[in-house]
Amino acid sequence: MGVELAYTDAVARATDGLYAKVAGVIPAIEWPVHAPLIAAINRLKHEKNAVILAHNYMTPEIFHCVGDFTGDSLALAREAARTDAKIIVQAGVHFMAETSKILSPGKTVLIPDMRAGCSLAASITGADVRLLRQKYPGLPVVTYVNTSADVKAQSDICCTSGNAVKVVEQIAKDFGTDTVIMIPDKYLARNVAAQTGVKVITWEGACEVHERFTAQQIRDYRTANPGIVVLAHPECPPDVVAEADFAGSTAAMIGYVGDRHPERVILITECSMSDNVAAEHPETQFVRPCNLCPHMKRITLESILHCLETMTTEVLIDPAIAARARIPIDRMLAIK
Ligand code: 13P
Ligand code: SF4
């Protein structure tokens, strides 16, 4: 297999409109490298009835030029449940592909690089959750979607950073309790507890990208950039969130920029987010901290093309585990 990857006139014609979307963040000299891959991916996608679900942390040539649906983990999960396409290519990390497979068991779900993991998902196993339940009987288990299917299968409800507050409040009410077990992100759990009247028992997990930000860094950014608006992801440590003007999921941060058009902003999150949002908001100046997620960055145009050409690697889950894991995800999706 393999397709011709030259920057021909035909490729230029097929991709010029896409370049217009990313011209602010991808230098023209780089476009001839990306364009043939983009043209080939978009052609194959249509031939195979595949859809690409691209997370907000994908690089701009993926996010803006081959992604059919883009968003935070919650939006991508909703789309995975809804799509009519036969094949889902997950331009994101492994737990996201598993979530898609759980929600669309009859579809072929492909991930361009199986090694695209997540420090949170790697921090806990299903056996750990069973032990937590023994230690704290009767308390509901709220599990971040950044976990394996096995962990979800042991949980009462899932959450994402986009709905964590609502989910925790709802499940505490449903169980008639003032305390929930919230795993595996200790920082997300503490940030959510601070926003609700609910106490949380958590786990020693953290995102390797967001845990590196410090409160001092935020103060230094403010000193160097007077008037800057600071938006932080709730996977950041609580003292970092306390220094921010707003904390929310990747989608909530995008919404903030789109609604309020700040003159200058800094997104305290993964690097590529700023490029993706900047491409759509030339009126806003972005100060860019550069913390990369090494797992997200395993997904490239080359790996997406290879994935579509060879139909690898397919994400498969034991059907019994997938069926159990679906219950807490559906319960989460039912919360509006
Ligand atoms: P969102 O749900 O905000 O997209 O976050 C997912 C993620 O992996 C953040 O690090
Ligand atoms: Fe996991 Fe953090 Fe990477 Fe998101 S950014 S996939 S939470 S390691």
Report on the architecture of this protein.
It is globular, with a radius of gyration of 20 Å. It has helices spanning 9-22, 31-48, 60-63, 73-82, 94-103, 126-135, 149-153, 164-175, 186-195, 215-224, 238-243, 250-260, 271-280, 301-310, 319-333, and strands at residues 50-55, 69-71, 87-91, 108-110, 141-144, 157-159, 179-183, 199-201, 229-232, 246-247, 264-268, 285-287. It contains 15 helices and twelve strands. Helices cover 46% and strands 14% of the residues. The mean pLDDT is 97. It is an alpha/beta fold. The strands form three sheets. It has a four-stranded parallel sheet with strand order 2-1-3-4, sandwiched between helices. A four-stranded parallel sheet has the order 6-5-7-8, with helices on both faces. It has a four-stranded parallel sheet with strand order 10-9-11-12, sandwiched between helices. Residues 56, 72-74, 146, 160-162, 207, 235, 249-250 line the site of 1,3-dihydroxyacetonephosphate.
Summarize the helices and strands and which ones pair or pack:
Layout: H1 9-22, H2 31-48, E1 50-55, H3 60-63, E2 69-71, H4 73-82, E3 87-91, H5 94-103, E4 108-110, H6 126-135, E5 141-144, H7 149-153, E6 157-159, H8 164-175, E7 179-183, H9 186-195, E8 199-201, H10 215-224, E9 229-232, H11 238-243, E10 246-247, H12 250-260, E11 264-268, H13 271-280, E12 285-287, H14 301-310, H15 319-333
Parallel strand pairs: 1-2, 1-3, 3-4, 5-6, 5-7, 7-8, 9-10, 9-11, 11-12
Helix pairs in contact: 1-2, 2-14, 4-5, 5-15
Bound molecules: 1,3-dihydroxyacetonephosphate and iron/sulfur cluster (SF4).
Iron/sulfur cluster (SF4) is lined by residues 93, 118-120, 146, 207-209, 235, 270, 293, 295-296.
